[in-house]
Structures are given as C-alpha cells and as structure tokens.
Amino acid sequence: MATILFDKIVYGPIRSRRLGISLGVNLSPADGKRCTFNCIYCECGLNEERRTNTHAPSREKVKQALAEALVKMKTDGIKPDVITFSGNGEPAMHPDFARIIDDTLQIRNELFPLTKIAVLSNSTMLHKKDVVEALLKIDDNLMKLDAAENELINIIDQPVVHDFTAEKIIEQLCIFNGKLTIQSIFLKGEHNGISFDNTTSENVERWIKALKHIHPQKVMIYTINRETPVKTLEKIPMESLQKIAEKVRSAGFEVSVSA
C-alpha cells in the first residue's frame, strides 16, 4: 500500500496544487490516523489499517515546531503562501484546536503577516462552538462536501460518527455565512460490492442545491491524484470535471478545478 502518513508535526513546505507553497501542520499522531471519516480515497490509508497507540501532539509542541519551522523559512528566504492544518486525519478533533489556532495567528503575525492560515476539514466538528469560533478567525476554511445525500457520503467518506447526516452537515456549514470554501472530490467505482458515481447529473444537481444553501465564497473540485487504499476507484477526466465546473459557475460560484 503506497498511502502515506505524516510523521512530523510540521512538514514541508510543499507545493500544493490548490494552495501554493504550503507549510503543513499535523495535529494527529505521527504513527496513525485520527479521523471522524474513513474515506475510501484517503492518501493516509483506511482507519483500520492505520490505528495509532500514541497521543496527538500537545499544544506546546505544536507551537514550538511551528515557530522553529517558520524561523528557518525566514532565514532561508522562503515565504509560505499558506500554513495548512491537515495531516493524518481531522485537525479539529484536537482537544486544544482553538488555542492552537490562536498560537498560530500570533506566530504568523510576527513572522509572515501576509501568509494565510488554512484548515482542511471534513466538516464533522462544527457542532463544537470553540471550533467554529477558531475557524472564523482564520483566512481559509476548506470544508469537505463530497456529496449531498447520505447514501453516497456513507460509501465515499464512511463517517464513523453515529449521528452523521448530510442534512446536518449542510446546515452546520451555513454557520460560516459564506466565509468558507467547499472542497469536493469527484470519483466513481465500486466498494463493498456497491457501485457508485457522484458525477451523475442527479448527484451533481443535488450537490449544487446544497451549495446554494451554504453559499460558499469559492468551490474547489478535484479528483484522485495519488494512490488510494481502495483499488476499485476511477479518476474522473478533466473534461468531465470542467463540465461540472461550468454548472457551478452557472449557479453563481467561483470554482477551481484540479485533476
């Protein structure tokens, strides 16, 4: 299995196809995943194959690692476009997530005040007031919405939270009042004997209806770019992604496409 884990708190900088020069921050354990989704396309692998016996890094260790990395970039004359919270799972699961965001804002303002702070989230922690308040302080909230109905999300994202529903996530995404980017992967294939395709006209129209309800400032659509833990998945051609993008633009949203 060629999927990867991030074995450091701070990694990179790397050139992201969607974000530019990105310094990554991993708030999950270094030896496994910690996530409320178990996405069949996840570059870190499936949860059951990546179990961890260690704890997430402490707030103090995150602050130290981030400060050291940014000081080195300053010394080397490298300016990050963005500090990105991602890593081996859902960053907002960290019990000190809100305070870590405050630390990051302080360090960023001191060293690289023009650098953006972004969080890549699967949107499942928005029931926590402190998480939402922290996310509203940063520059870019990239929130996952891979489909707009339960059956498809259960296949593609495999939520491990017992009370998950697409309707609940869509309503919670409205909390941002448009200060967010919706990030959606398009793919098709088969898993556990069930065939699926979230690029069908019906599924795309249902997803766009959800976008109209959430009203994000931007939409990012993409497809598989790395090896996936489930091998029966198919990459969507750029031509098909562009057709979906045109529908999104026609609905009044800015959209970017990666393949």
Could you please describe the fold and organization of this structure?
By secondary structure, this protein is an alpha/beta fold. Helix content is 32%, strand content 21%. It has seven helices and eleven strands. The chain has helices at 59-76, 97-111, 129-135, 150-156, 166-173, 201-214, 238-250; strands at 10-16, 20-26, 82-86, 116-121, 140-144, 181-185, 187-191, 194-197, 218-222, 233-235, 255-257. Strands 1-2-3-4-5-6-9-11 form an eight-stranded mixed β-sheet. Strands 8-7-10 form a three-stranded antiparallel β-sheet, with no helix packed on it. Helix 1 packs parallel to helix 2 and helix 2 packs parallel to helix 3.
Biggest sheet character: 8 strands, mixed
Taken in chain order, the helices and strands follow as EEHEHEHEHHEEEHEEHE
State the distance separating the first and last CA atoms: 22 Å
Return the structural class: alpha/beta
Q: How many beta-strand runs?
A: 11
What coarse outline follows from CA principal-axis ratios?
globular
Give the overall pLDDT as a whole number: 93
Share in β-strands? 15-25%
Brief overview:
The chain is an alpha/beta fold and 259 residues long.
